[in-house]
Amino acid sequence: QVLLQESGPGLVKPSDTLSLTCNVSGYSISSGFYWGWVRQPPGKGLEWMGSIFRSRNTYYNPSLKGRITMSVDTSKNQISLRLNSVTAADTAVYYCVRDQALGATNWFDPWGQGTLVTVSS
Amino acid sequence: QSVLTQPPSLSGAPGQSVTISCTGSNSNIGAGYDVHWYQQLPGTAPKLLIYANTKRPSGVPDRFSASRSGPSASLAITGLQAEDEGDYFCQSFDSSLSGLRIFGGGTKLTVL
Could you report the per-residue pLDDT of B2-15, keeping only the tens digit for each? Predict the structure, then answer.
């Protein structure tokens, strides 16, 4: 069973960098699949942020305007997310997901339990 | 505003059936990209409900079914149960930018 567990600070100051880590168990991320991040502002819908494949291929949501960086650490079986210059609009629950991309289609399964990040001074 | 349009809310009585629509455009669903559906029960993470338009992952009851036609897709739930109450999201791929994954705005389903 593949399990994803997000971790990181729950509070980030405006203009700072949000950093999260996703620990993957039950599957070696070096074996394949894309891995991604999806966020959900309180009471709102889902927003795909980006997906990464073995540190080689990355796709980012253009709405994040170059603020996002994703990376993979295969030695720790972890995926990381960095989001620069955060504002209150970045307050959300952040989910780590396995992005099961297959050609020109993809779906997200499984999902981590999510971690709430609040941007506030 | 989401690229994929869903009704914000729907309701139904136990035992009844409901259908949730997801309308896209010629750069996503209408271009032939698959549609996937997620269920998010209160206070929990989303869970894959339907993938590749019509396929149910193991463990998903056959009360849930989905279809795709032209630029739209729909999720049907029959025999509504109280535990079906939650939010439902559609998701697809968009060709406007390489690798762009998109979600619908979500539909809140209330079981009366």
Answer: 789 999 999 999 99
